[in-house]
Amino acid sequence: MRFDRFDIVAPGLFDEPWNEATVLGSATWLWMHSSAHREAPLHSLATLLLPALKHRQFVLGSEAGKPVFYLSWLNLSAAAEQRYITQSPLELADADWNSGERLWFNDFISPFGHTTDLARLLQRQLFPNRCMRSLDHHGEERGLRVKTHMGIGVIPEQANAWFAAHPLELTA
């Protein structure tokens, strides 16, 4: 699928052919260029990257044939959401990836300055009618912070109602 100048692979959103090995290589290459991911041990790919491919819950964007961003998401139940915000990402069970309707952006990798492009794409084309959450990527420095997001087709009253109906339980 093509949006503007980006070729997008997002099999959970668009029914188009894709190659798992190509996506794995591209996502791993982006990880190696991301200061937040490059020190991750190789064995963490089995927990943090492969389930996204298995469940087709990712977006890989390329520009002029070069990978420039990657995002994975989770559809969590309330119980899985609680585990996600209180445990190490390495403890995320495969069954949790698609266990409910609480959409979380899990990995957001854009090491070459395409963050705004990816955010705009998520809001306008990929998840225009959804409410979402993500963890602040500076959590280790600032403490736990949860960001909320909504697609362009969601009016504030709808977003408020959705977040009220799906409260975040911050318990220890």
TrEMBL record:
Q: Does the keyword Acyltransferase apply?
A: yes
MF terms from GO for this chain are: acyltransferase activity
| Gene Ontology biological-process entries | killing of cells of another organism; toxin metabolic process
Q: Where is this gene product found?
A: Cytoplasm
Q: What is its EC number?
A: 2.3.1.-
Pfam families on file: HlyC
**What GO cellular component entries does it have?**
cytoplasm
Q: Which UniProt keywords apply?
A: Acyltransferase, Cytolysis, Cytoplasm, Transferase
Xref: InterPro entries: RTX_toxin-activating_protC_bac (IPR003996)
Family per record? Belongs to the RTX toxin acyltransferase family.
Name of protein:
RTX toxin-activating lysine-acyltransferase
Source organism (scientific name): Pseudomonas aegrilactucae
